[in-house]
Amino acid sequence: MNEGRIVVGLAGNPNVGKSAIFNTLTGSRQHVGNWPGKTIERAEGVFQHGGWEIHLVDLPGTYSLAAQSPEEIVARDYILSEEPDVIVDIVDATCLERNLNLTLQSLELTDKVVVALNLMDEVQRQGWEIDIETLQAALGVPVIPTVATEGEGLSELADAMIVVAKGRQTTEPIRMDYGLTIEGHIQDLEADLDRLAIDGQRRWLALRLLEDDPEIVNAFKAGDLEKCCLRDDTEPASREALHAVLRRATRLREATHPDARVEIVRRRYELAHELTHRVAHRLRPEEMSQTERMDRIITHRIWSWPILLAILVAVLWITIQGANIPSSWLGNAFGWLAERARDLLASINAPWWLVGSLVDGLIVGTGTVIAVMLPPMVIFFTAFNLLEDIGFIPRIAFNLDRLMRAMGSQGKHTLVAMMCFGCNVTGVLSSRIIESPKDRIVAIVTAPLVLCNGRFGAGLALIILFFGNRALEMTLIYLFISVGAMLLATWILNRFLFREEPGGFVMELPPYRKPKWDQVIWRTLVYQVGHTMGRAIMIAAPATLLIWLLGNLPPGAPFEQTPIGRLVRTLAPMGQPLGLNGEMMVALLFTLPAKEIIVSSLAMTYGLQTTLADSQAILDYLAQTWTTLVAFSFITFYMLYMPCLVTVWATWKETHSLKWTAVSILLPLVMASGITILIYQVGSLLRFS
Amino acid sequence: MEAEDALKAAYALQEKGNAWHGEKLAQSMGLPKAMGQDITRAFVASGWAQVGVEGALRLTEAGKARARELVRAHRLWEQYLVKQEGMPLEAVHSEAHRREHEMSAEEVERLDEALGHPAWDPHGHAIPGPGSPVPFSEARSLLAEGVPDSRLRIASLDDEPAALLAQLLALGLRPGVDIEVLDQEGGVLRLRLDGEPVPLAFDAAEHISVVPTPILPVPMAELPIGSQARVVDIAGTGRHQRRMLDMGFVPGAEVSTVRKAPLGDPIEYRIKGTAVALRHEDAATVLVEELGYE
């Protein structure tokens, strides 16, 4: 039986379990993209319920629909558009009052709203009781209690979506009373809009005009109401008439005391406050919460620092140690796959170049990239997401904001930088948590300076090879150089390029919660590892193929005659001041698709092998031929010199700016060259080798 | 000079709406009753007062004008002595008292000019303008107003007795200071001043005039950790103001300060059941009225 299809928009504050409801309902049937023209994620999914096909659209989490941020504009425009049949407003029942601010705004936009009262288990644990019946009667729309992480109430929620979407239950949303003065102004403006034959949403528009809403005001100024998604089916009003309405709104706003903008929000919160007190009752006296106890330690003036450092080191250590074994398994698996493919191709008498390019180039090359990238990413991001799910991550931003501010940035930048330790690509994508456009750009272009797992792991192999018993100190020195370079670049950018632009830091500190493993693993695998690996393979596959061709054409030629051999000679002079020879320069070039393949790239450029497979031979060779100073210079340059191509691509996607993409490439290149020249020249002067 | 002092006392009695006569006046000044006759005679001879029904006296316009001049000169002198000469507050009264009688009208105006037309004398009393009546003060005695738990601001201190004034000043009780009354017991008021308890005898409290503390919004960033406050206004504009409003910082909302970050900034606030971290500069745009400590 197939009743039809309905479209549902999921709205709600950040951190209310919106994604949990979305994931639980749609399972794997979802598609993640961007909202048109915006770098804001648009997740869509489909599920079946009661014979209906329900199409869910996950709106960005916002505190308001005030159109003060791109997220708010996306959410508001979607609710205003014709697309959704019903809006589900997901509310954190543990802080009902603040969440009702958004609910009441949604109810002003559309009648077709269902409220999901989520985190009801937490409400009980904290000793509260919420009178659902009364809340439902007061709001005038269905209110469904849910515990998204346990799947409780989701079936009822789906029922309510269908009932409201199909108009089987008429909803009568509560009507806000903004007080005599403002209601009078609303009437005046509504009358004006009526004269202009603007249909529907007149009251809402009048309120936005009184509030000086930037999007609506601009639409009126431009004389184009289509822009703000109004249901404007009538003849378009003349520009002069619209300007007249705008002038009147401005006059009314300026004549209002207290400030109309403040008063409108205050009234809404007043109603939210009153509703909350009517429906929420405390059953047990308040006790000091676990969050408070934990925050006393985690944000402690002294203890916060060792805790932060210990956790960071622990996550990196677990990642590197834990990734070794699965990486070698994966390496073996791809090796086995390559042999089978070679046998298969040999059995059909394929020409040598096809075997070589497909097997040695594509399978071995791409396989090496996957084998070295995948396990550390999975481990690192699982750990990171776990910390985020618990609520620890926002505290890091809280603790470090002052420090980052000294560089002109803010606390959330540290979160992006920490993601970058896992993978620069994911770090760049995670910069979306920063609202301030300036701080976001800075976080993106400084991301490549943070050592990702790939560089860290491969660099570690070289560090152990050359510094043996001093490996720990050297590792810490590299961490220090990397973080120092990132902070310096942040300071330089803020000091010279963004001198006038304001930043700002407003962040909610959610209570500590027990981790929801399924959500953590879902986010890690699907959103982070899945996306990034997919893109990495798209870039790594052709690149590794190209590298193979460069090293093996023309057939049978001696190494010096291959394109690699020639490249080595061409690039050699450029590396000289840095203490790098041509082989090293070409190897660095080869690591642009994925930094992890540095050792096997060196093997190819030194002419020791013709594929990107890992081998011990190259390590032995390097240990004999490189001096400690050369190794130090090379590793330093390698760690910092340029973002990998996937990061460049992500930077382009997130900034849509050639200028900033170029900065993100040149900045690390300049800094890496500077630091390496310093190390090599000073080292040479001191005759240190 | 004595007659002029009597004139000021008479002016104070009449302005407070009391009927008066020579004897009563002498009494209020701590003089023997017999002096009342002399005062009455002197007043009438100078044209400062007229005798009305039942021997009651009333100041003439000329009498009132002279009394105002004297008050004005006295308070300007006090201000001058404290501000320009750096004389301690408890010592200025007697000095000003001597000099007020020696000044011509032009000299008073020059003094006023030199001081920048001050509105208040150092005790917290209003200085009347030239020719205008002495402003009626809404301040009342601390003894009358000092019910427990009231929050008051000291409006003025009596000029005399000088010894008591010196003691009050030594305790830190001076005009403009906010105090909180904790309780009263056995003829002693217990006050809180700058977080410290201060005991004060009823006799002393009588000489302090107070007004209820006006609500003075303070920037939320200035609140000590652990305090509770109510939002009065959001000073920011545009996007920033809207952001604060949407996070729940609306007029009337109750907010508490939870903790500072390890480096002193940002600060965590609790608002409407959620914890929000704000930088000092952003929190400073939220104006609040302090409600107290946890």
Summarize the structure.
The complex is a heterodimer of chains A (689) and B (294). In chain A, 63% of the residues lie in helices and 8% in strands.
Can you put this structure into words, describing what you see?
The complex is a heterodimer of chains A (about 700) and B (about 290). Chain A is about 65% helix and about 10% strand. In chain A, the strands form two sheets. A seven-stranded mixed sheet of chain A has the order 2-3-4-1-5-6-8, with helices on both faces. The longest helix of chain A is centred in the middle third of the chain and has 44 residues, at about 305-345. With about 700 residues, chain A is α/β, with parallel strands linked by helices. Chain A is elongated. The model of chain A has no long low-confidence stretch (mean pLDDT about 85). Chain A contains 28 helices and ten strands. Chain A starts with a strand and ends with a helix. Among the domains of chain A are: about 5-165, P-loop containing nucleotide triphosphate hydrolases (Rossmann fold), CATH 3.40.50; about 180-255. With about 290 residues, chain B is of the alpha+beta class. In chain B, the strands form three sheets. In chain B, strands 3-8-4-5-6-7 form a six-stranded antiparallel sheet. In chain B, strands 9-14-10-11-12-13 form a six-stranded antiparallel sheet. A two-stranded antiparallel ribbon of chain B has the order 1-2. In chain B, α1 (about 1-15) crosses α4 and α2 packs across α3 (about 35-45). The interface of A and B includes residues 101, 301 and 304 of A. β10 of chain A pairs antiparallel with β13 of chain B.
